[in-house]
Amino acid sequence: MLPDPAMEVIVATNCGHTRQNLEAAFGSSPHRLTIVAAATELLRVCLRQGADLALVDLDLGPFGGQDLIALLRDVDADLKVVPLAGPGDVNQEFALRGVGIFYYMLKPIDRDELMAVVESAHRTNGEVG
User: Fold this and answer.
1) Which of 18, 25, 39, 94 has the fewest Cβ atoms nearer than 10 Å?
2) How do strand 80-85 and strand 105-106 relate by DSSP bridges?
3) How far apart are CA 65 and CA 85, in angstroms?
4) Averaged over 64-77, what is the pLDDT?
5) Domain ranges in the chain?
6) How far apart are CA 117 and CA 115, in angstroms?
């Protein structure tokens, strides 16, 4: 069976620049995009409407990145989560991989890398993330 031509993608960021870059990247994409600016909104949307992929800015608060991703995975174990992180802390990436992220993406976001990750998530849609 072929995957749905579009995924439900939720973006959680309170950074205007990141938001604009993501909106532009998804402009011609078939995927349905929902953008929220707070961790609580992200959790609410995941509970109410669900999503296939979540792009989550780790600077959201009030939760730490690892705690927020663990909560998301509790809400939906199949949700593919991609944290959007500032330049790096290798320990943070390792810890996040331990709670089941799909991919670890550094900001500033590279459009080609982003779309490759989205298409990878789309190809594996329905598989446990």
Assistant:
1) 94
2) parallel
3) 9
4) 89
5) 8-123
6) 5
